[in-house]
Design brief:
Layout: E1 21-26, H1 29-38, H2 42-50, H3 56-59, E2 71-72, E3 74-75, E4 98-100, E5 128-134, E6 142-147, E7 158-161, E8 164-169, E9 178-179, H4 181-184, E10 190-195, E11 203-207, E12 214-218, E13 226-229, E14 234-239, E15 247-251, E16 256-259, E17 267-270, E18 273-280, E19 291-297, E20 303-309, E21 332-334, E22 337-342, E23 349-354, E24 360-361, E25 370-377, E26 384-389, E27 395-401, E28 408-419, E29 425-427, E30 429-431, E31 439-445, E32 448-454, E33 462-463, E34 484-487, E35 501-502, E36 511-518, E37 527-531, E38 539-542, E39 546-551, E40 556-561, E41 569-573, E42 581-584, E43 591-598, E44 605-611, E45 618-624, E46 631-632, E47 638-642, E48 650-651, E49 654-661, E50 667-668, E51 676-681, E52 689-691, E53 695-697, E54 703-705, E55 723-726, E56 730-732, H5 743-746, E57 749-752, E58 759-765, E59 771-773, E60 777-786, E61 793-797, E62 803-806, E63 816-819, E64 824-834, E65 837-848, E66 853-857, E67 861-863, E68 867-875, E69 883-888, E70 895-897, E71 901-905, E72 910-920, E73 923-934, E74 938-944, H6 956-969, ...
Parallel strand pairs: 46-50, 59-65, 67-73
Antiparallel strand pairs: 1-6, 2-29, 3-25, 4-6, 5-45, 7-8, 8-9, 10-11, 11-12, 12-13, 14-15, 15-16, 16-17, 18-19, 19-20, 21-22, 22-23, 23-24, 25-26, 26-27, 27-28, 28-29, 30-31, 31-32, 32-33, 34-36, 35-36, 36-37, 37-38, 39-40, 40-41, 41-42, 43-44, 44-45, 47-49, 48-49, 49-51, 52-56, 53-54, 55-57, ...
Helix pairs in contact: 8-11
């Protein structure tokens, strides 16, 4: 922006231009470039900001990049915070700024000779001007301007076009230009231009990556270039603030490179860096001048704050100032401060490092509960932060911190915001340049927006007094607080226009702004207003909106109408806007798209950019305004001016006296103009102090503790025998210079640390999470609100059988680390104790490891209306850290359990699908199985020849395919067969015989029919299987034989509750038989005749009655003689197995009786 300090010092300034000027026009390529600048390209914003306080050269820059009225936020939230204020328009010195011609509709306007309303018109002195037309550029509707060179007559305009980037160079301050593209080769397509901030003779131009990736370097103000190839595409550049040959380059694939020879050679720093989150070292704070701060990504997707040296950034040389992970796009390195946001599951948590000290959590009022936070400024020894609280939507609260940036107090509620370029939120807050502690803000209250002003950094606010009369001299009846002056505080979308409000460091007290008079801020019926006494009184100067710039270090003002109307005149005032003289700068009315005011040198030159019509070429008009000055100013041309606040001479604890040129003197100020003549400290009074953290200002003006704050709380670092400063509820406004007076009354008092029991013990993990991976290093943080940290014993039980103890809390400041060797939920307990008492707290930590395999175990066929157990087997096994999601049958909503088993009853016949999902850590696995639900069924156990095991990969798909093959060789209707191949080896299967689909009626008849079919099938298959006649070909040359493992002799399984008498007889027979066997086995040594019978009658074959079935015949099991102990065990085991299978004969026996019988047999049979 031309015209000087038209916005707070916190906005990133461009670098001061010299006599060298460079321009660019674009149509296509520049649109992408503009978008980059709007997003805060580091090469444009950070370098400008770091040169903010370099003195008059930076302050009087004619290319202020959007010296804006409102602050651009350092943005948090999903996008993270974007850094310093004002990052949405690139630095014109480094990357150029946009001139948008807005040609459409220009032919509709008519030139009005009455250019604007001033107080006085005088004879029109002629200005020396020259016009240069950019021939052939009528299709271009964007321009970018660069300044290059250092105190020379070289100016270099460059032009972007739809078919490339064209650059021109002037050696006579912009009177004539020569094309620079011929110097780099006609085939070279250029894209962006950068000027080194610390040596403006050095220029770096990038080629268009669509054609090639190269950099062109000039060390002679663009007179000649050397070309160097690059193996990456440069997205943005960031120059070092002091070392002219050092630069950082950010590539399109998120890699960061460094160069120490002005772009000739590049070295990779990091492979994955967040866009716009890399910074050079800050002089006086970082030990190494080549230190790079960056926000880097880890391979697993986390984000860390990393520092390293530019040419030595291997993994071994990297440092991590903040040990944990941070939120993406949250790192801001700005002045004395470094800000980060840490990832939390609930409320946002912010940390700050002051002068590179360890990070400390930022303390906002307890219930501010921010959902968005932005850093507004940091350059006045404190932090301005805008916080959108939980109950706000389009407004923010303004908070001010202490010097260290830790404790924040409320300065103003409900500050209005507007949407800026690129969609960034802009806070309607303006820091007046040249006067310390003076702010202007627009506040929303009761659906009205009003403008307020403060002279003590937000301690006190008041409305603006409206002018007493209008331009015609008529009285304005505007009575506070019902009517006041309201100002627009938005930035200009065109950085070459002045915007809605302008101030300048070298012209303290002068404020020019667009506004309206009334009950609230309005954007209709606006005019231009000026204050010469720092906002105490205001005067109207124009009835229409104008762009106004400061000339000659603020000694004069120049005004031009808004670019929507063509003009050929400009207005100049030498008496702080009281009188305006009209001057012609063009013979034809011009649509003014932008103005550059060259400053920082002895010459007085302005450059106008614009079009005569919507189809004409770009016109560059150079204006030498030296002729409007009659002479250089002498001491007699100056007068003193006392800064005051409505008559109060003490502002920020000082009586400040400035030297200003007497209004109306047509003299040139020169470079050695003194701003502040004297500053005398005042006696401290109440308005020099603001409320301390935890205190709020009451209706009586006194600071009182907030309901959530305990003023008796003493820092835990305060140990017995030491002293601490007890707050009085007030703290001195930062940079306030008052002395004595009430200073002792409001200053914190020195007191001895009391001996007190521990209270407010808090246990957390360092990353704020309640989960940790198995084998990872978990860091626990112990915090104590109250208590003597040096005399309080700390014990920490990790919940896995290990614990640690520390003699005092100071040993735990770095955190307590522990590695868990097993998964589970652990109860971690902290215990703090001293001689006066104790406190304890508990944390439950979930230690998990990823699930590698899940297998669903369920029967293949189940009976309708019978409860069935389903199990999910998880590998590796977890304890209480796995969540199971079950979808059973046609249920759309899952059943969620922490147990790997679930019981379910199927109500209808058919094929039902069961799905289970297992979630552990960040892993989710799934398994699915289909179950047949029938009223009754039969089954046969099968085994296979060993050669099948050689081809068994033990996966579900293979088992399904083998099952289909077995169904084919069974020679039975496939719809009545179901073959289930079991997992594992040796390979085994079960063949199920199912009833016909339409057998719901005549169930008994169906059972009998199926029984006959089953007996027939059993006889046929038993013979075939026993004779090895059933086989199939798995692959050529590989034949697999199917064996009968166990043919079920049981009749149909019935789901009805009835029990036949034969089944009950079978059950009782088995029970009595089992008891008899048990008694004989138990007491056989005490009955001699039994032993003798067994010895004498060994040859005689013994018979034992087995279980009784429903049929008339009773199966018999023959017991061979027990020749050896080994054979005896085998026979007993065989009998045990056969008994269990024989139980299946009793179809009518319920599962309850079957379970009892199994239990009896298990108890009776010797192991």
């Amino acid at each position: 922006r031309a015209g000087g300090d038209s916005a707070p010092r916190t906005a990133p300034n461009s670098l001061s231009p010299s006599a060298s000027l460079s321009l660019s026009l674009s149509r296509c390529l520049f649109r992408a470039h503009t978008r980059q600048l709007a997003e805060g390209a580091p090469g444009s914003s950070e370098e400008s900001r770091r040169n903010n306080d370099k003195g008059e050269m930076a302050e009087d820059s004619a290319l202020r990049r959007a010296r804006r009225s409102g602050h651009e936020f350092a943005e948090f939230g999903e996008n993270g915070w974007t850094g310093g204020a004002g990052v949405d328009a690139g630095s014109p010195d480094e990357r150029g700024s946009m001139l948008d011609a807005h040609k459409q509709g220009r032919s509709e306007f008519r030139w009005n000779r009455d250019e604007g309303r001033g107080n006085t018109r005088q004879d029109e002195p002629k200005l020396t001007s020259s016009t240069f037309a950019l021939t052939g550029d009528s299709a271009h509707n964007h321009a970018v301007v660069y300044w290059s060179g250092q105190n020379s007559s070289v100016s270099t305009p460059c032009f972007h076009a739809s078919d490339g980037f064209f650059s021109f160079r002037s050696t006579d301050y912009g009177s004539t230009y020569e094309r620079m593209n011929d110097k780099v080769g006609s085939k070279t397509v250029l894209s962006y231009l950068y000027v080194c901030p610390s040596n403006k003779r050095k220029i770096m131009v990038l080629t268009d990556p669509e054609f090639e990736s190269s950099v062109l370097i000039s060390t002679d103000e663009g007179a000649s270039y050397q070309k160097y190839r690059l193996n990456f595409y440069v997205l943005s550049l960031l120059f070092h603030p002091t070392e002219e040959d050092w630069a950082l380059a950010y590539s399109h694939d998120q890699k960061l490179y460094s160069s120490v020879d002005f772009g000739r050679k590049w070295q990779l720093i990091h492979e994955h860096v967040t866009p716009n989150r890399f910074y050079w070292s800050v002089t006086g704070l970082d030990r190494e001048p080549d230190l790079v701060h960056m926000e880097a990504h880890t391979p697993d997707g986390n984000v860390q704050y990393v520092t390293c040296r530019a040419q030595m950034c291997t993994e071994a040389n990297r440092n991590y100032p903040f040990p944990g992970y941070i939120d993406i796009s949250s790192l801001v390195v700005q002045d004395d401060y470094i800000f980060i946001q840490v990832p939390t599951s609930g409320r946002a948590t912010y940390y700050v490092s002051y002068k590179r000290e360890p990070f400390i959590q930022i303390k906002l009022p307890k219930y501010s509960l921010p959902k968005d936070l932005h850093i507004v400024s940091t350059d006045e020894k404190q932090v301005f932060a805008a916080v959108q609280e939980w109950n706000q939507n389009d407004t923010y609260n303004l908070y001010l911190s202490d010097t260290r940036g830790i404790y924040f107090t409320l300065a103003m509620e409900n500050v209005k915001t507007t949407r800026g370029i690129g969609g960034n939120q802009m806070l309607d807050l303006y820091e007046v340049a040249g006067i310390k502690g003076m702010l202007i803000a627009n506040k929303r209250h009761d659906n009205q927006v009003k403008t307020y002003i403060t002279y003590n950094k937000g301690r006190d606010w008041r409305l603006l007094q409206a002018p007493a009369s209008d331009l015609e001299g008529n009285d304005i009846h505007c009575i506070l607080p019902f009517c006041s002056l309201h100002l627009q505080l938005q930035m200009s979308e065109n950085p070459y226009l002045s915007g809605t409000i302008s101030t300048k460091n070298s012209a303290p007290g002068i404020i020019v702004a667009t506004g309206n008079i009334g009950a609230e801020l309005s954007y209709n019926n606006v005019g231009m207003f000026i204050s010469s006494d720092a906002g105490n009184t205001w005067r109207p100067i124009f009835e229409e909106e104008h762009n106004i710039w400061f000339l000659d270090k603020g000694g004069a003002l120049v005004a031009v109408k808004q670019p929507s109307v063509p003009t050929r005149h400009l207005w100049v005032s030498f008496d702080e806007g009281r009188q305006w003289t009209q001057h012609s700068f063009s013979s034809v009315p011009l649509f003014v798209d932008g103005v550059l005011v060259e400053a920082g040198a002895e010459n007085q030159i302005m450059t106008f950019f614009g079009h005569f019509s919507h189809r004409s070429e770009w016109q560059l008009i150079k204006i030498d305004y030296k002729s409007i000055f009659s002479r250089k100013c002498t001491e007699e041309d100056y007068q003193t001016w006392h800064l005051h606040n409505q008559g109060e001479p003490c502002v920020m604890g000082q009586k400040q006296i400035y030297m200003k040129r007497r209004p109306g003197n047509y003299c040139m100020l020169g470079k050695d103009y003194s701003r502040i003549l004297s500053a005398e400290s005042c006696i401290c009074r109440a308005h020099d102090f603001e409320c301390d953290y935890g205190y709020e200002r009451g209706s009586d003006g006194n600071c009182k503790p907030a309901f959530w704050f305990n003023p008796s709380t003493v820092s835990r670092s305060c140990s017995q025998g030491q002293n601490y400063f007890n707050s009085t509820g007030y703290r001195k406004v930062v940079l306030n210079n008052c002395t004595k007076g009430v200073k002792e009354l409001y200053t914190p008092r020195k007191q001895q640390c009391p001996n007190r029991p521990p209270k407010g013990l808090l246990l957390t993990t360092k990353d704020g999470k309640l989960t940790a991976g198995l084998g990872s290093n978990v860091t626990f943080m112990v915090h104590l609100d109250e208590g003597d940290s040096l005399r309080t014993n700390i014990q920490l039980d990790f919940g896995d059988g290990t614990a640690v103890s520390y003699s005092n809390l100071s040993w735990t400041e770095e955190g307590i680390k522990h590695i868990y060797k097993s998964a589970g939920i652990f109860r971690v307990t902290a215990f703090a104790e001293n001689t006066l008492g104790y406190d304890t707290t508990t944390l439950y930590l979930h230690v998990t490891c990823p699930v590698e395999h899940v297998q669903l175990l369920a029967p293949f066929v189940v009976i309708r209306n019978k409860e069935v157990n389903i199990t999910a087997v998880v590998l590796p096994s977890h304890s209480r850290t796995v969540t199971y999601f079950w979808w059973l049958g046609n249920n759309t909503e899952p059943v969620i359990t922490l147990d790997g088993s679930i019981s379910h009853t199927f109500q209808s016949e058919g094929m039902h699908t069961i799905t289970v999902q297992v979630a552990a850590s960040n892993t989710i696995l799934q398994d699915t199985k289909t179950i047949a639900v029938k009223e009754f069924f039969k089954s046969l156990l099968l085994s296979f020849s060993p050669n099948l095991d050689e081809f068994n990969p033990d996966i579900p798909e293979w088992r399904q395919d083998v099952g289909r093959v077995i169904k084919k060789v069974a020679e039975f209707p496939e719809e009545q067969l179901l073959v289930a191949v079991f997992p594992g080896v040796p390979t085994a299967a079960e063949l199920f015989l199912l009833p016909y689909k339409n057998q719901s009626e005549g169930k008994k008849k169906s059972e009998e029919a199926l029984e006959r079919v089953w007996v027939s099938l059993g006889e046929i298959h038993e013979d075939a299987l026993n004779q090895n006649l059933v086989e199939f070909e798995l692959k050529p040359g590989v034949r697999v034989i199917v064996y009968n493992t166990q043919l079920t002799l049981a009749p149909l399984v019935d789901s009805s509750p009835r029990h036949s008498s034969s089944a009950m007889l079978m059950l009782l027979s088995v029970v009595f038989l089992g008891l008899a066997v048990f008694l004989i086995y138990k007491f056989k040594r005490k009955i001699p005749w039994i032993n003798i019978y067994a010895e004498v009658n060994q040859e005689k074959e013994q018979e034992m009655i087995g279980s009784v079935g429903q049929g008339d015949s009773t199966p018999k099991i023959t017991l061979s003689e027990f020749s050896t102990s080994k054979e005896l065990m085998e026979k007993e085991l065989d009998a045990r197995v056969k008994s269990k299978y024989l139980l299946r004969v009793g179809t009518g026996v319920s599962s309850k009786y079957t379970s009892i019988l199994f239990w009896v047999l298990d108890a009776l049979l010797p192991s």
